[in-house]
Amino acid sequence: MKWTDSLDIAIALIDARPNVEPERVNFVTLMNYVVQLPGFSDDPDRCGERVLEAIQQAWIDERK
């Protein structure tokens, strides 16, 4: 997975962190969660606020 795979990342986060409320996760923690996912293989330095916002929103949407 790459940073641009926000939906895939969101689904993986649901599986990896089922008890976490994505609305309460700050961007530093979210970034750490993402880079720890199995199958994630992008450069952590290529992540920005817009990417994290997209991932967080997809995570929120997919949990509904």
What is the percentage of strand-forming residues?
Answer: under 5%
CATH architecture: Orthogonal Bundle
Quaternary form: single chain
How far apart lie the N and C ends? 23 Å
Biggest beta sheet attributes: none
- The poorly predicted ranges are none
User: Which structural class do the helices and strands define?
Assistant: mainly alpha
Report the order of strands and helices. HHH
Furnish the topology, listing elements before pairings.
Elements: H1 6-16, H2 27-35, H3 49-63
Helix pairs in contact: 1-3
Summarize the structure.
This protein has 64 residues and is mainly alpha-helical.
Written account of the structure:
It contains three helices and no strands. With 64 residues, it is mostly helical. It has one domain: Arc Repressor Mutant, subunit A. The N and C termini lie far apart (23 Å). The mean pLDDT is 97.
Keywords:
single chain; 64 residues; mainly alpha; Arc Repressor Mutant, subunit A; 55% helix; globular
